[in-house]
Amino acid sequence: MDYDNIRETKCPNCGGDTTLLPHRFRPPKHTDDLKWKVIKYLIANGFIFQHVFEVGAEHSYANYVRYPETLSEARIFVEKYKGQTKK
User: Fold this and answer.
1) What is the distance between the alpha carbons of residues 80 and 87, in angstroms, rounded to a whole number?
2) For labelling alongside 81, which of 30, 40, 48, 70 has CA 20 to 30 A away?
C-alpha cells in the first residue's frame, strides 16, 4: 500500500470514513468527546498531526509547535499555522 499518497480510507470495523495519521498521533479515550472535536477540527483544516514549526523559524526539533488541547486553542492554531497544512 502507498501510505504516502493515501489519506482517507474506510474503517474495517464500521465502514465509516477514516483518515490516515502519522505514528506521532496519540488518540484520546474513545469517550473524550471534547478532545475528539478538537482532532476533527484540526484534520478538517488540513492538520494531520505532522510536524508544525514556529512561523519564521528554521525547521529543527527546537521549533516544533505543540498541537492544541482545546477548541479555542485549535482555532488560533489553525489561523496561525494555516500555511503548514498538508491538504
Assistant:
1) 16
2) 30
| Residue at 13 is within a domain | no
Give the C-alpha distances (Å, rounded to integers) separating 8 from 1, 4, 39, 77: 13, 11, 15, 23
* Number of domains within the chain: 1
User: Is the pLDDT score of 1 beyond 50?
Assistant: no
Q: What band does 75 get if pLDDT is binned at 50, 70 and 90?
A: very high
Q: How many CA atoms lie within 13 A of 39 on its CB side?
A: 16
Q: Is residue 56 part of a domain?
A: yes
State the pLDDT at residue 41: 97
CA-based diameter of the chain, in Å?
42
- The answer as to whether 5 is a domain residue is no
